[in-house]
Amino acid sequence: MKKIIVTIDGWSSCGKSTLAKQLAKKLGYVYIDSGAMYRAITLYFLRNHIDWSNENDVLNALNCIRLHFEYNPETQLAEIFLNNENVEYVIRDMVVAEKVSEVAAIPAVRTFAVQQQKYMGEKKGIVMDGRDIGTTVFPNAELKIFMTADMLIRVERRFLEMQIKNPNVTFKEVQSNLQMRDQTDSTREVSPLKMAEDAILLDNSKLTMEQQLDFALQLIQEKL
Fold this sequence. Notes:
The chain is α/β, with parallel strands linked by helices. About 50% of the residues lie in helices and about 15% in strands. The strands form 2 sheets. Strands 2-6-1-7-8 form a 5-stranded parallel beta sheet. Strands 3-4-5 form a 3-stranded antiparallel beta sheet, with helices on one face. The protein is globular and about 50 Å long.
């Protein structure tokens, strides 16, 4: 059967990765979490005290970073490895979340990540979510979805998710973090977050996970 590339872009905490994972599992496609790649790079920078305002320091650090995904049969997900260390759960920490948009806005970092993402998609049959997948990474993708949701709904979703890992996190902290990330992602100089002209808008403010999955599967069926 013909295989396509499905891109899912959108604002933070809209459920992009949840939908992408569901689609990949349903279709038998490979799921690539581009956000995890930027988080892993941010984690490396933080651990190694990299001054990311210094271009040479950034380039030298990127030369030391090796990223790959491995399928975990227990979670049935592709988990990210940083220099052969599984960092799938470490990268979800608030400390990384507060810096990832800043690091992801660096041109050299984006070039590094996009090159790897393009290579991963050469054989098609992938679902990738992020901020610039449909506009920069795969501008010729057969199906592009752009996700959005009401800000307070996004904050609530993220807050409940963060509470499991950090019971001390506050609603206000999460809201400030999302607002900061929205601002950084949409105004950065290189590959800013924006909806591709041929993308289909999916506002899931009032949709269940099952409803948004059905919506996306219908779009894919039309493409196939």
